[in-house]
Prior knowledge:
Elements: E1 8-10, E2 13-15, H1 29-37, H2 49-60, H3 63-68, H4 70-84, H5 90-93, H6 96-101
Antiparallel strand pairs: 1-2
Amino acid sequence: MRSTPHILVINGTKVRRPVFILGAPHSGAVPLARAVKRSPGFHLTTSRPGVLRVTYAFARQPSIATERGKGAARVIRDAYAEAWLVSGRACAECPDECRELAGLPPRPP
């Protein structure tokens, strides 16, 4: 069976080489994320609840990845796909931290 050259499809666009920025506090990840988020052609989200829940679940119980195999990979892929959707409401649902990185004002209460 031939594998697909993309890992997921977002808004009809096949994502072949996603960029992940991960970093500990004070590691320089925030200024880097701010620069990438303001660059044309990049869509960057931070602190999305769905991704955080899945990440924390795998961090608390790493055996999920080895015991569940493809099912675990599908859960991670779906969480990222949901977080990366670009729509009229996408930025409205972003946490204030993500909006700040983009130079957008905070969400109205």
